[in-house]
Amino acid sequence: MDYQSIINKIYNEVQPEVGKGRVADYIPALRNIDDHQFAMAVVTVAGKEFTVGKTDENFSIQSISKVFTLTLAMKDIGNKLWERVGREPSGTSFNSLVQLEYENGIPRNPFINAGAIVVSDAIFEGRGKTKNRILKFVRELSGNNTITFDEEIAESERIYGNRNRAMANLIKSFDNLTNQADDVLDIYFHQCAIAMNTLDLAKSFLYLANSGIDPKSGQQILDSRMCKKMNSLMLTCGLYDAVGDFAYRVGLPGKSGVGGGIVAVVPNELAVAVWSPALNKYGNSYAGTKALELFTTYANNSIF
Ligand code: GLN
């Protein structure tokens, strides 16, 4: 498949869409980013890379990090996690508090903020240790040792993170948080503030396209059953309350973040990452969603 021609064509076609929508201004450190940026990277299980646009520009991966922490939690405690977090789409925005109260502090799924906070609690072994573990994991997956936290963004999230703080405390009040809310939030804010580029991001999702084995290192990151589960969760919960629209338009398991990144997986074939900071009203990249829709249309490689 000539992925380079396909993404070149997509690049030209999405130009009028780039900058449509709004950057995530509820995190002040994300507010000033140039919204007219776009990047797309495809990495195949066979080891080929295709890029277009600003694929070496770092951005804040935000909620995409929830896939990395969930992978670590699945390795650590496997199915026991599901006693504390659900596996259904929420139908509400990623930072909604409403359902959490009705459902006794058990978040609907691991990809809304409440669920990710519980996942971070499940892998907590001390602030520094857990942050280092997450960073080491992402560096290994991407093969890029320079990936690190953007401390300015982490601090901005901490200062303006009242909603996440309310969520963590509500979960704690239902006894579904083992550690102190502020300690867990420190992990959560930092994982969201990991900065990496679009090519690194595609590379670091390749294990999910390859039955849990990272084809670059041959390392088994997740066993194949867990890998299936992770992809199913991304398909049903990875784009919050726009997950139906994304499945309809793109037809791949994917995960988005309010930094404007979206990454998706074609099982047994490739991982594809896009980045464009302006978001639609659901908090997903506007041009990024469009680019992925065109990708599965031109490459005819949706899972459906
Ligand atoms: N750090 C962001 C938050 O907590 C993550 C949200 C997202 O990317 N959807 O609100």
What brief labels describe this structure?
three-stranded antiparallel β-sheet, binds glutamine, Beta-lactamase, alpha+beta, five-stranded antiparallel β-sheet, single chain
Please explain how this structure is put together.
- With 304 residues, the protein is an alpha+beta fold.
- It has 2 domains: 3-56 and 232-299, DD-peptidase/beta-lactamase superfamily (Beta-lactamase); 63-192, 3-Layer(aba) Sandwich (Beta-lactamase), CATH 3.40.710.
- It is 43% helix and 11% strand.
- It has helices at 3-14, 65-77, 98-102, 113-122, 127-142, 151-159, 162-173, 181-192, 198-204, 224-237, 243-249, 286-298; strands at 39-44, 49-53, 59-60, 148-149, 194-196, 254-256, 261-266, 270-275.
- The strands form 2 sheets. The protein has a 5-stranded antiparallel sheet with strand order 2-1-8-7-6, with helices on both faces. Strands 3-5-4 form a 3-stranded antiparallel sheet.
- α4 (113-122) crosses α7.
- The protein is globular and about 55 Å long.
- The model has no long low-confidence stretch (mean pLDDT 97).
- Bound molecules: glutamine (GLN).
